[in-house]
Design goal:
This protein has 432 residues and is an alpha/beta fold. The chain folds into three domains: 114 residues, Gyrase A, domain 2 (2-Layer Sandwich), CATH 3.30.1360.120; 128 residues, Four Helix Bundle (Hemerythrin (Met), subunit A) (Up-down Bundle), CATH 1.20.120.430; 145 residues, 3-Layer(aba) Sandwich (Rossmann fold), CATH 3.40.50.300. The chain has 15 helices and 13 strands. Strands 8-9-10-7-11-12-13 form a seven-stranded mixed sheet, with helices on both faces. A hairpin with a 2-residue loop joins strand 9 and strand 10. It is flat and about 80 Å long. The structure holds guanosine-5'-diphosphate (GDP). Guanosine-5'-diphosphate binds next to helix 9.
Length: 432
């Protein structure tokens, strides 16, 4: 196993830069530069190379089994200048048995050494990518092993149920003094409802991770673009995409009370003969349909919401600056993108609708998690069916329980890990 090193902090000038070294030669490499301090004791040390001082650094040494990777490792907190970092990396590259780490390699070793399971690796990637408060809280929960803890409980129940069934197979000729089936049924019933509940909360967990979509819909010239600009100007826009000639949905991603939200400005809805506009209207309806929430901008007092709107969507009178207080009081929400009137209230309404939905958020943040749990659930259902209406015997039930268990092991990355590693580590950078 090579010993790897890399800059773990961001590139460029900074107060402090952190270089990580991990692997069997981490400690001996450090010994070539300075007196190795006691493990887990931050020590200020001059680092020497070829008779000259490279830098004065805070040095941390971790022993095998007590580091992020599980390997012996070293962290150097250097002065964060580019020349300092370059000189230290250059020195490390000259040490036999050391090489520069590949992207995500430290985390990969942590996974291989059992310090993290696969869901925790995903949680770590999400924590590094987190842009909003809700993303931070959720990814930290996953990184802490929330999924693994649940899965362990489920697997214990599966193993117990399988063991009870195996006993009836092994001792089929003898009379068992107790009927194990009631306990098996109770275990499987409990598992079915827990896995079902977990899947029910998965959609929202995924939304917290990827962001909610809110479509602004209404007739042409209702003031949708102006409202989007007002929203973006008022709130920290994370990214903003201006529509090209082929795309006519403009997206602005922003942080709304800790939630990642993408507002979509769609083509105005109206009947038209213009084939290009027809396409735009179709796309607008598609995106509005798929969105988590729609803000329908009423164009005047007699306008009515389009059919695409659903219960709990926000129906808002636009161009509020044109109307009197009496008219406005007939509408729960009214905004003027032009003057900014009502925009903050609208954002507040959006935020409370979305926050009320996040209450049911589960821990399965990715589609991969949902697929694994659904596979497990399907196997459990087959086991239950066979148990209730025996066709093929108790061996088949035991086999389905093993399949349910295997699906959960895939979730944690204990088996079949290679098939998903590439995709997961693609988002990692060098030094992580
Ligand atoms: P969209 O087609 O729905 O995106 O509408 P736009 O945002 O492009 O606005 C259409 C026209 O209405 C433009 O001339 C805007 O200046 C005007 N407009 C938009 N919002 C407001 C508003 O809040 N108040 C007033 N008085 N005019 C507005």
């Amino acid at each position: 196993m090579d010993t790897i090193y890399a800059l773990a902090s961001a590139r460029g000038k900074a107060g402090v830069a952190v270089v990580r070294v991990s692997g069997p030669k981490a400690h001996s490499a450090l010994a070539l530069m300075t007196a190795v301090p006691k493990t887990r004791q931050a020590s200020l040390r001059k680092l020497y190379w070829q008779g000259a001082v490279l830098d004065e650094a805070l040095v941390l040494v971790f022993e095998e089994g007590a580091s992020f990777t599980g390997e012996p490792s070293v962290e150097l907190q250097l002065h964060g200048g580019q020349a300092v970092v370059a000189a230290v990396l250059q020195a490390l590259s000259g040490i036999d048995g050391l090489r520069l780490a590949e992207a995500g390699e430290f985390t990969r070793r942590a996974l291989e050494n059992g310090c993290l399971d696969l869901t925790q690796v995903e949680g770590l990637a999400d924590l590094i990518d987190a842009e909003t408060e809700a993303q931070r809280v959720q990814s930290l929960r996953v990184l802490s092993g929330a999924i693994g803890a649940k899965v362990e409980g489920w697997r214990r129940d599966l193993v117990r149920a399988a063991a009870l069934l195996e006993a009836t197979i092994d001792f089929a000729d003898e009379d068992l003094s107790v009927d194990v089936m009631p306990e098996v049924r109770a275990l499987l019933d409990g598992l079915l409802s827990q896995l079902d509940a977990e899947l029910a909360g998965a959609k929202i967990a995924e939304r917290i991770r990827d962001g909610f979509e809110i479509a602004i819909v209404g007739r042409p010239n209702a003031g949708k673009s102006t409202l989007l600009n007002a929203l973006a100007g008022r709130n920290a826009a994370i990214t903003s995409e201006i529509a090209g000639t082929t795309r006519d949905v403009i997206e602005v991603r922003m942080d709304v009370d800790g939630l990642a939200v993408t507002f979509l400005d769609t083509a105005g809805l109206r009947d038209t003969d213009d084939p290009v506009e027809v396409l735009g209207v179709e796309l607008a309806l598609q995106r509005a349909n798929a969105a988590d929430l729609r803000v329908f901008l009423l164009d005047g007092l007699s306008d009515t919401p389009a059919a695409v709107c659903r219960e709990n969507d926000l129906i808002v009178l636009g161009k509020a600056d044109r109307f009197s207080g009496d008219d406005l009081s007939r509408f729960a929400y009214h905004v003027s993108g032009l003057t900014g009137q009502g925009v903050q209230l609208l954002l507040g309404a959006v935020s409370s609708v979305l926050l009320s939905r996040t209450v049911g958020a589960g821990t399965l943040t990715r589609q991969r998690h949902q697929i694994a749990v659904r596979n497990s659930l399907n196997a459990l259902r087959s086991a239950m069916n066979e148990l209730e209406r025996p066709l093929m015997g108790v061996e088949v039930v035991a086999e389905e329980l093993r399949a349910a268990s295997r699906a959960l092991e895939v979730l944690l990355g204990r088996i079949d890990v290679e098939t998903v590693l590439g995709e997961i580590f693609a988002s990692f950078c060098i030094g992580k």
